[in-house]
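Audit log entry. Action: structure prediction of a protein-small molecule complex. Ligand: zinc ion. The ligand was supplied as SMILES and no pocket hint was given, so placement is left entirely to the predictor. Protonation state taken as written. Sequence taken verbatim from the request; no trimming, no tag removal. Recorded inputs:
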Amino acid sequence: MSRSRLLAGAALMLGLAGVVPSVGAFEGIRVTLLGTGADAPDLQRAAPGTLIEAASVRLLVDGGVDVSAQLTKIGLGPAGINVLLLPHLRPEHTAGLAELWLRGWREGRRGALLVIGPQGTQALVEELQRARRGEIAADLQRDPDGLAIEVQEIEENQVFEDGGVVVTAIVVEPAPSGPAYAFRVEYRGRAAVLSGDTRYARNLVGGARGASVILHEVTASGPDPAAQQAVRDSGHSAPEEAAEVFRAARPGLAVYTHIDLGAGSEEELVRRTRKIYGGPLVLGRDLMVIEIQNEVQVRGQPSEPR
Ligand SMILES: [Zn+2]
């Protein structure tokens, strides 16, 4: 059994992240789970947000309502973000955008905030800019650098490239509430894939092949079959759907995030996943760090001050 498999098993048994010290220069992809919650407010989990770092590139996936606070907890703050990827425009993915944008500006962001998202992102940003016009005008003695927002609505597979870091968008299968994408972030032959909001999507299996880590959304529902079907109908994944993706794509590590326990439990998520997928699995926790180099390592809390 590999080290990461053992580690994942221990993490699940204990309900805690494994702890592996980070040594030497880091040359891989670092994923920080800022918020592992879903759409409903959750006392245990912050709203969706995932930080992905590789080389000098820093990408924030999701602008959940807690992202600025979570970024502040890891010593970065909203000013440290210049690229935001939105997999979907539902409120749990976008409700923190105003704070990320304006708080980041006030705290000294250098350069524009690039927002990459589905069709509708431009309209969302323009609405925000209109709504905040008075507030910004009252604060214009401040350096305007960091106030600009650039929008890139997703039209092609490759949505970002910088310093050898490439991001590809993968169309997934949402509810009728608009387009949704997964993202594959690659650097030096390694890849992390985030599912975004989706029910089972064959595209995602193809797009996630060879990835070191797959971060997948999941919704528990309790034993009621009608409730389990309602999860699928709402454009989300029951544990079995996520497990099918993990089984087919065989990542180095499967991670649950965007976790909605509904009427269910964490134990239910693991039990139902394990009926289909036996590989390395971690239930994401807020501020968990996953480092992808030759091995995949998981740390429970960010330990290095920035
Ligand atoms: Zn969502």
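Audit: result stored. The chain has one domain: 3-18+28-155+165-284. Residues 3-18+28-155+165-284 form a domain with the Metallo-beta-lactamase; Chain A fold (CATH 3.60.15.10).
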